């Protein structure tokens, strides 16, 4: 049951409601959609005690202006857009309480490309095929089928208790958003990697690419380096997924993202590992990226380690919240 909402006062640029997406429908031609940076919303939802797939607002800069019409506990993470609540600066990766009538704004982009707003209990927006993620290709109405617009109301859940613990995530678990060439993105070769000529195989793993302006939620075009095949090949369209690096005829690699098609016919030369896809998605237009080769086993270990961290955080948040609920004396100040 829902009551009041989070109202969109100003829409910003391509802010959408997202969750972890629609798994299992690719065989029907329905792409997964979902958040571009899967790790940031997972950390925020864990911090707030939500399920990992709770719906959040994904924001590009300029970000939307949002007004709370009921009290809520919130957390912001991913890119740092200098959030402010009624003009008071907020920090990323920690809990805050918003009171009815307070307005959330974002001043400037400092780091990263996509920021996320999560609220305790998750957004109570409509679902399609079990997901709240916006998809622009299915003819859906409202926030399920388009970016946020001024006047939209995002229902907030009715919570039995609004915590005020002001918990924050330790810097040791936070993702690093950097274009530092000493922090390359890890990839594993895909089916057509060996169709690259020897020089292109070497360039893919040694040269610096630039995130092109022709990039969106479907894919990121990489500029600055042109790769070539040993000879032209014709492929039957095959399944693709977020993280796949395709090579169109112009030789500029394209990295598929959350809104990508379910099949494609361009050569699949590599795949960004799941653990590094958030860091890649957070690269801003014009920033650089380098790739380094890893193994499937190492890729699985990296993702497993992140998921273990999330489980440990969830346990710590649950215990800390319970301790504050039981032990904090009446009238005691909120923990900071």
From TrEMBL:
Keyword Chloroplast: no
InterPro entries: CT_A_B (IPR003778), Cyclophilin-like_dom_sf (IPR029000), PxpC (IPR052708)
Pfam families linked to this entry: CT_A_B (PF02626)
Domain (Carboxyltransferase): residue spans on this chain: 27-310
Database matches in SUPFAM superfamilies: Cyclophilin-like
Highest taxon, organism lineage: Bacteria
Assigned keywords, A-Z: ATP-binding, Hydrolase, Nucleotide-binding
Keyword rRNA-binding: no
Protein name per UniProt: Biotin-dependent carboxyltransferase family protein
Species whose genome carries this gene: Chloracidobacterium validum
Species lineage: Bacteria, Pseudomonadati, Acidobacteriota, Terriglobia, Terriglobales
